[in-house]
C-alpha cells in the first residue's frame, strides 16, 4: 500500500459547504482512492456510494487518465486560448461533440459546473442580442434547482439556503415551481406519473412578463443536488413545446446527468428531449482535473459568431478554458466511456439498483424513495425541530461503517461509479439500511 499522508494542521483550509467547526473537531479524512474505494488516513476502506461528488463515473485511479495527464504535462503544461490555441483543446471539443445530442456541436470549455451555468446564461443573452432581440433579458429557473454558486446560476437556481447569505440576486429572474409531489408520486420508480401540468406554468410566466422579454429557461433534467427529483412523464417535452412556441431557449444543466449517469451519454437522450444549450462538468474528466463545458446548438454559435463585426464575437472566457491537462483528461475519460460502455453498464445495473433502493421502503422514518439510472434518493422524516439531523447521523454512521453517501436536508442520495457491480450495490444498501435503523 502506498504511504498515506496525514495533515498536521486543519486551520488554514476553509472548507466549502461544510460544518467547519464540527469537522475540525471530528475530522473524517479521505487519503487514497482506487476503483470503487476510498481509504482513510488510518487505512480504513470506504466504499464510494457517490462517485466522489457525482463526478468519478469511471471509478478512481484510472491509469489511462493519469497517464494522459502525465504525458501532456511533460509536453506542455499550459497554453492560453485567448487569440491562440493548442491542438489538444480542439481535439477534446471534437470528442465531446461526438457524444452530445445531435446538433449541439459547438463546445465552450469552462472549469466547473458553476462556470458552465453562468456561461450558458450569457450565451443565451448574447444570442438574442445578435438576432436583434436585446429586450429578451429575463431568465427563468425552477424552485429547488441547483446551477452552481456563481451569481447567475445561483439567481436562476432555487435553493433558498444557497441564496440567503448573499442579498440581492440578478434582476429579471423568475422561477417555475418544482416538480416534487409526494402526495401523488411517493415511491416512484423512474419518472413519476403526475406533474406534467407544472410545465404549463411557463405559459403563466410568459403571460406575466411577455414572451418577447424571456431569453431562456434553465432546468436540470433530473434535479440532483436538491435530493433526486425525477421529472414527471412528458414534463420536459411540454417545456420544450412552450419554449419553441415563444422563441425561448431551453438550457439543460447536465452537470450530474451527463456522461452515463442515466444509462445514456446525456440525460436528454434518456428523457427524449433535446435542449438548445447543455452544460456539463464533473464526469467530463472523471474529476481528475477540473473542467466544464457548454454545448450549444449550431445555429446559436452561427448567430453570435457570424453576426458579429470583425474581432472578438463573445466577450467571455476563462484563463483555463481548454487547459491542456484538462483536455488530456477529458479525451482519456471519453475513451474509457466508449471502450467500457459505461452508459451501457449503468443501464444494465439499473434494475438491480432500483430493487435494492426500494427494498428500504419499510424502514423507520423512510417517507419516499425515487430513482432513475444509477441515482437514488431516500427521503426521511425530519426529527421534530431538528431538520437535517437524522440524515446527518446516517451519513456519519455510514462513513464509520465504510460507506460514503451524500445528504441534502433529510434526503440521502446514492450515485455510485458506473463500474459498480451487484456486490457493491448489496454492500451499499446493506450498510445504509443498518444506519437508517440506528438513526430511528
From TrEMBL:
Q: Please list the cofactors this protein needs.
A: pyridoxal 5'-phosphate
- Family membership noted in the UniProt record: Belongs to the class-III pyridoxal-phosphate-dependent aminotransferase family.
UniProt keywords (A-Z) are: Aminotransferase, Pyridoxal phosphate, Transferase
Offer one Pfam family short name for this entry: Aminotran_3
An example of a Gene Ontology BP annotation on this entry?
A: biotin biosynthetic process
Gene3D superfamilies in UniProt: Aspartate Aminotransferase, domain 1, Type I PLP-dependent aspartate aminotransferase-like (Major domain)
Say which domain of life the source belongs to. Answer: Bacteria
Please state what the protein is called. Answer: Aspartate aminotransferase family protein
Gene Ontology MF, one: pyridoxal phosphate binding
Read off the CDD domains from this record: OAT_like
Which organism is the protein's source? Teichococcus coralli
Amino acid at each position: 500500500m502506498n504511504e498515506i499522508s496525514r495533515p498536521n494542521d486543519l486551520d488554514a483550509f476553509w472548507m466549502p459547504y461544510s460544518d467547519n467547526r464540527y469537522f475540525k473537531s471530528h475530522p473524517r479524512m479521505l487519503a487514497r482512492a482506487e476503483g470503487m474505494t476510498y481509504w482513510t488516513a488510518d487505512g480504513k476502506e470506504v466504499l464510494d456510494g457517490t462517485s466522489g461528488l457525482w463526478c468519478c463515473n469511471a471509478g478512481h485511479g484510472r491509469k489511462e487518465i493519469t497517464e494522459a495527464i502525465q504525458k501532456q504535462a511533460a509536453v506542455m503544461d499550459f497554453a492560453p486560448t485567448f487569440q491562440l490555441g493548442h491542438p489538444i483543446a480542439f481535439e477534446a471539443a471534437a470528442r465531446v461533440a461526438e457524444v452530445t445530442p445531435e446538433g449541439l456541436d459547438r463546445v465552450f470549455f469552462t472549469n466547473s459546473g458553476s462556470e458552465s451555468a453562468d456561461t450558458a446564461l450569457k450565451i443565451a443573452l448574447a444570442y438574442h442580442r445578435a438576432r436583434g432581440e436585446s429586450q429578451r433579458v429575463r431568465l427563468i429557473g425552477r424552485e429547488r434547482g441547483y446551477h452552481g454558486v456563481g451569481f447567475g446560476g445561483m439567481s436562476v437556481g432555487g435553493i433558498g439556503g444557497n441564496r440567503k447569505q448573499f442579498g440581492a440576486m440578478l434582476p429579471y429572474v423568475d422561477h417555475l415551481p418544482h416538480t416534487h409531489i409526494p402526495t401523488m408520486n411517493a415511491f416512484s420508480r423512474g419518472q413519476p406519473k403526475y406533474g406534467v401540468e407544472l410545465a404549463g406554468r411557463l405559459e403563466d410566466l410568459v403571460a406575466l412578463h411577455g414572451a418577447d422579454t424571456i431569453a431562456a429557461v434553465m432546468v436540470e433534467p433530473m434535479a440532483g443536488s436538491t435530493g433526486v427529483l425525477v421529472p414527471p412523464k412528458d414534463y420536459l417535452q411540454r417545456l420544450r413545446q412552450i419554449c419553441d412556441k415563444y422563441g425561448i431557449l431551453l438550457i439543460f444543466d447536465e452537470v450530474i446527468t451527463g456522461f452515463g449517469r442515466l444509462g445514456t451519454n446525456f440525460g436528454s437522450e434518456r428523457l427524449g428531449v433535446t435542449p438548445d444549450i447543455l452544460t456539463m462538468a464533473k464526469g467530463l474528466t472523471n474529476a481528475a482535473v477540473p473542467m466544464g463545458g457548454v454545448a450549444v446548438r449550431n445555429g446559436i454559435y452561427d448567430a453570435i459568431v457570424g453576426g458579429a463585426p470583425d474581432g472578438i464575437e463573445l466577450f467571455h472566457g476563462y484563463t483555463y478554458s481548454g487547459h491542456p491537462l484538462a483536455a488530456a483528461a477529458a479525451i482519456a475519460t471519453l475513451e474509457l466511456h466508449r471502450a467500457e460502455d459505461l452508459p451501457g453498464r449503468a443501464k444494465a445495473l439499473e434494475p438491480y439498483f432500483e430493487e435494492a433502493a426500494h427494498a428500504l421502503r419499510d424502514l423507520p422514518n423512510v417517507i419516499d424513495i425515487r430513482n432513475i439510472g444509477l441515482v437514488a434518493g431516500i427521503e426521511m422524516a425530519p426529527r421534530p425541530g431538528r431538520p437535517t439531523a437524522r440524515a446527518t447521523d446516517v451519513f456519519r454512521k455510514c462513513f464509520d461503517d465504510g460507506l460514503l453517501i451524500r445528504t441534502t436536508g433529510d434526503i440521502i442520495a446514492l450515485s455510485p461509479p458506473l463500474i459498480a457491480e451487484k456486490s457493491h450495490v448489496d454492500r451499499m444498501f446493506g450498510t445504509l439500511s443498518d444506519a437508517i435503523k440506528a438513526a430511528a
